[in-house]
Amino acid sequence: MLHVLADLLTLGVAVAISPIAMVAVILMATSGKGRTNGTAFMLGSYLFCIVFVGSLVVIGRSAGADDEESATHLLIDAVEVALGAFLVVMAVRQWQRRSHTGTPQWMNAIDGMTVWKAFIVGILISGPLSPKDLPLLFAASGRISQAELVVHEVVAVVLIFGVIGVMAITIPWLISVIAPSQVEMRLSGLRDWLIGNHAVIMTVLFLILGAKLIGAGVADLVS
C-alpha cells in the first residue's frame, strides 16, 4: 500500500496546490466565516475527491484493471497519456492568459455565501469546474485501480489521497480557527499573491504534471 501512496504523492500534492481554492478559503477566513463556510468548503472538496476517485476505482477494478494483461489496464495507460497531453495544452492556454490578473466575479459573492453554498462551491472548484483537478483525479483513480491491493487497502489509499488533496486549503482554515484575530495580517498578502500569479502557477503545474502523466503512461504501455 505504501508504494501506491508514494506513487500517488505527486498527484495528491498537485491537487492540493489549487490557487483558486486557497483564495476562496482565505476570503472566507478574512470575512470572518472561516470556521463555518471554510469548514463546509473543505468538506465539500474532500468528499468530492474521495467519492469521485472511489467510484472510478470501483468501476476500474470491476473491469479487471488490476490485471496487467487486461484491455482495461492498457486503456487506463492510454487515457493517462491523453490526460497528460491535455494538461500540456492547458499550460499553453494559461500562459496566454497570464496578463489577466483581475479578481474573478464569483469571489465577490463569497461574503454572502451560506454554509450550504460554500459546501457546493467546494465541490465544484475541486472537480467539475477545475481543468487541473479532474485529469489528476482520473489519473489517480487509474493508478489505484491498477494496483494489486486488497479492498481495505484500496479504501485506505482513497481516503488518504483525499486528505493529501486538501492539505493546502487546510492551512488558511486552521489559521481562521486557531488565530481568527490574525487572519487578515497573515493571509491578505498570500491572497493577493495567489490572485496575481494564478496563471503562471498553473502554467508551471500543468507542464510538470502533463509531462509526468505522459511519461508514466508511455512507460507502462511499453513495459
TrEMBL record:
Keyword Repeat: no
The species this protein was found in: Microbacterium marmarense
Key words, A-Z: Membrane, Transmembrane, Transmembrane helix
TM stretches of this protein: 6-28, 40-59, 71-92, 113-130, 150-178, 199-219
Pfam families referenced in this protein's UniProt entry, alphabetically: SfLAP
Name of this protein: GAP family protein
Domain of life: Bacteria
